[in-house]
Design a protein that fits this description.
The protein has about 425 residues and is mainly alpha-helical. It has 21 helices and no strands. It is about 80% helix and about 0% strand.
Amino acid sequence: MVTAVLFISFVVLLLISVPIGIALGLASLATILLLDPISMETFSQSMVQGLNSFPLIAVPLFAFAGDIMGKGGLSKRLLDLIGIVFGRFTGGLGIVSIVTCLFFAAISGTGSATVAAVGCIMLPSMFEKKYDKVFSSSLIATAGTTGVIIPPSICMVVYAVAAGVSVTGLFTAGILPGIVIGVALIIYTIFRSKKEKYVGEKRTYTGKEIVRIIIEAIPALLVPVIILGGIYGGIFTPTEAAAVASIYGVIVSVFIYKEVKIKDLPHIMFNSVYMCATVLIIIGISAGFGRILTITQAPIAIANAILSFTSSKVLILILINVLLLIVGTFMETNSAIIILTPILLPIVTQIGVNPIHFGVIMVLNLAIGFITPPLGANLFMASQVGNVKFDNICRGIIPWILVMIVVLMIITFVPEITLALPQMMNIPIK
């Protein structure tokens, strides 16, 4: 009865367009007032405890670091460097865009920021070289999904807090899946480019130009080295890495590349705080929501219901993937992680799926939601940056979604791709 009231009221509130954080709170309050599963005092304490987490400090810090580096010219330097290596190949501009998104993902930690930073520079160049507008915009939107897979990832920090697993383990586990995604996108780009006859750039670089581009790109290339090297080397925690990234971002953007003024910093800080405030409110309220679920043993009941339906590990994982793909089309990613993790994690652990591996599966599923209407945050961003009608990009994104689903199935059923690197580096994955 408690579970029914909780979920029905939550769904009804979402259907009438109540913001998800408020919907979670009102559904919880309605359940407490009608059925009294826990006291208001316990609910309030759960909300405070949900936010009293050291790893959560990384969320606004990584958001700030990604924002300032995106505005500070790092993406342009990366593009110039990668263009030297890949620009001459068939579909070269597309390949350069994908590889740059992979690198910038290790800087920004978000999907939309990656699309905006890379798209603003690459899309005009691709259009100039007669690349189809829909194809180009769809490519950038899809490549931007790597922002939440390749570390540092804000979504993975949120999952780590919700699931009680190692942030470092998740970050490490996301590297190889991110590379697999990049390779798959490059293969499809080459295939389409050969079909559409998108030839590579014939520009030749002098030795002096190559040296200049490499030197200018070094500060940008050092970002993932500093962040990830520091984490894996045991120099600092992921949260401390976020603080280091923020300071380094200010130094590079303001004093080295000089594309951000000191007077711009308060505005960038405000944007980062504003973006993260919603997420943190949802996390706090969801902790109280989760406490009600725990007391009523709803996750266990749902897990038993699914497991009674079928004992097949393959079928259960397919059903969960379908659920997450659907949820990702209409629910904000961090909200979905916070709500669904306590429900789905007991199910997958019972069938022998590692929590770290499931975290990557969940984030990848929801990342596909970035390019799937009606939410499609990356689609909206690419549509605006590329000045392409949203309806057109929705049609053009279909083959890219199919590529991503193929990669999702590979990562789901080949856990070694996710777990090999953490195991190799002796990082705890339990």
